[in-house]
Amino acid sequence: MLQKELVDKLVDEPCGDPVKDGHAGLCEKHYKEYLVDRINKAKLDPLPLYEKDGNIEIILMREEKAVPEKEEDETDDHYKQRLIEHIKREVPLQRGVEAQEPQPAANVQEPAQ
What we know:
It comes from Geodia barretti (Barrett's horny sponge). By secondary structure, the chain is mainly alpha-helical. It has helices at residues 28-41, 47-53, 57-62, 76-90; strands spanning 2-5, 10-13.
């Protein structure tokens, strides 16, 4: 659905892209946007899904971060755990405005405790 602005109101209209079964009546693009919004509102961390899939390097590549090399004698489990810790440091979850610490407005004193 697209939200179109008319002179006196906003109207939701189909975007015109094909709708897939099981996508809540949305095209693929808008369904993905809907899912991301739901994930963010629920403050879910997608990292465990990548861990299960065994493809956690993709997170670093997508964020254009260096992927640490696996050490010669390192086990797969240890390497995976090291990647997870690296991701948590290098690609912290961002939750838009709500992730930022509230900042007092300029020239406004905080209330006394």
